[in-house]
Amino acid sequence: MLLDRVFRRRMKAAIVLGLTLCLAATVWFAMLAGDWLSSTEALLIVAISMNGFFKDTTSPLFYELAAEVCVDACALWVHGALLCQ
Length: 85
Description:
This protein has helices spanning 2-6, 11-33, 41-84. With 85 residues, it is mostly helical.
């Protein structure tokens, strides 16, 4: 994955960047749909597609982050439970 190479050992920065770009695409779509900016059907499609792309880009990073956090916490809990018996 490209994000794994570019953001090596900086997973939180990749998540924040992806969600920031997702928010920007959402605001752009809302401004187009709310007639604050002149819009065409093509621009609406591009805006909502960018929103989905940036949101879906961050999903694997959330799973990876959750796995890293849970594995360490579960391992400590299991070791503690085994030592207490």
